[in-house]
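Subject: sequence -> structure tokens, single chain

Hey, anyone have a minute? Need the predicted structure for the following. Not urgent.
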Amino acid sequence: MSSSASTPPEALTRLRHDLFPDDEPAPAAPGVIGKYIVRREIGRGGSSVVFEAYDPELDRTVAVKLFHGEAAGASLLARFHREAVIAAGLRHPGIVAVHDYGVHGGSPYIVMEFVDGKPLSAWMGARPMAEILRLVEEAARAIHQAHCRGVIHRDVKPQNILVGSDGAVRVADFGLAHLMDGEGDPLTRTGAILGTPEYMAPEQVEGRIGALDARTDVYALGVIAYEAATGRRPHQGRSIAEVLRKILAEDPARAARLNPALPSDLGAVIEKAMEKDPRRRYPSAIAFAKDLSRFLSGDPTLARPRGIVARALRRIRRRPWIAVAAGLALAGAAVTGVALRRAAEAERSNRELARRVAEAPHEANGLDALRGRAVGRHRHGRVLFESGGDPTEDYGMARQDLDAVLAANPWHSRARCERAELSLGVARLRVRQGVDPGADLEAAESDCREALRSNDREVEAWRLRGDVALLRADLDGENAMQWYRAAEEAYTRAIVPDDRFQRARMDRAKVRALRGRARRAVGEDPTTDFSLAEEDCSESLLQNPAKAEVWAWRANLRREMAADRESRGRSEEARQLAELAAADQRKADRIRGKE
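Reply:
Had a minute. Here:
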């Protein structure tokens, strides 16, 4: 390790106090801090104590964090003032609000929102992994909001993520936890280490203050996710120095090795968040949150699992001496050869599976395996497409698998629908590439017809027919009204009463709104179409009132309806619709909350 990456002894001393605060006797709790009446101590760290207190002026309970130790100098108090002002400006439901700050007996304190709950570290316990990961996702979204204001946390850990009695997550200690951990200004001191060792990113361990950014907090979030998935932290040691050395020089045990039941997609998300090189991590906390949300929703993640060879090459790039030693011992070739043989065996196994399915139509397990793989590849391709990537390879492999399934069982209506949806995805790709999608749309319609021939109540086939008709309306402006009618009829057949998410109903609402706009564009009255769309939207909200995007969609529709009524001289109707639209938007904003 270079001298620039070494750990200063004074930094280790500070960290030791953070880890083992009980080595020092606890000072007696003050009766009053500023104007706040102290009730009880609720938390203690190496550099501060947190009290529950009462604010007599505003008649509310607050949390007061008092930094202890020697009295702070004027420069540090000035810096504390600046940081407190910044933290107080972070207004978000997922961030603990800072109300006030001051100095008590020469030591600064901050006054925060009191959260009736417990830190994530105490809450986790034996909770299901999915519950913990959902809270990590919420914390990441809140942290992203702070990043958007230019504030990096630098000390993200379970103790700073509070879970309220209402189940909501609030992140505490933004920009303040590191201020009083030693003399001088820790943000400009050479070689300073900010943060709690086990959750620190390599750039923090090296003391590269200028390298700290949003990705530093992403790393810590990845460590928390690792802990949720495995029950242990990725880097452990008998001393602080050993922990810091491992963070810099060693890869942690793969989460899937510690928890064999761990899905590979989740392992990939955690590995990407915890990359030692910040450039390989998620670029932002929101990107991490969204990929974690994809996993929790059962969708494919953008992060992909690394193979054996990729992991070996990654280690070699980080530590070139491995390659030299491997070359001298000829071990590198052997390891690579084993990995390549395994990859070839896996590919042969896949081909053999497809052959067996084609030759044995009643081998249900083989059919399910191929279908499952096709769906996964299609979903991954769709994520690539939506993010501007090229899904051609994923789409092609998914089609091969579905072709094999349908060759074995032509009456498999679900596989028909999946292939129709795939053809529709390819058609959209063709449109983006400027290529005629006609053949792909025909293929999608053909599979829908075959699926309905087997089962005319196949809801997914009707919905896909609506999607095909809607795309044709976009491409064939002269006959758009005809295609809108076809889409409306198909979506109507796809609506089922027990569908909580009312997807087909909202699809029909959008078609009706599009048809209304088309009428208005040629001088016709769109009122009927807009009203029908509004009814669909309202019915959908009755079934599921927690869908923020539906409230927002109805708000936009009502604004559009208000503008149309105003243009027709119906001012009172326009005013009422505008008020309804504003109420819908407020509802959407409240539901989104942490987004």
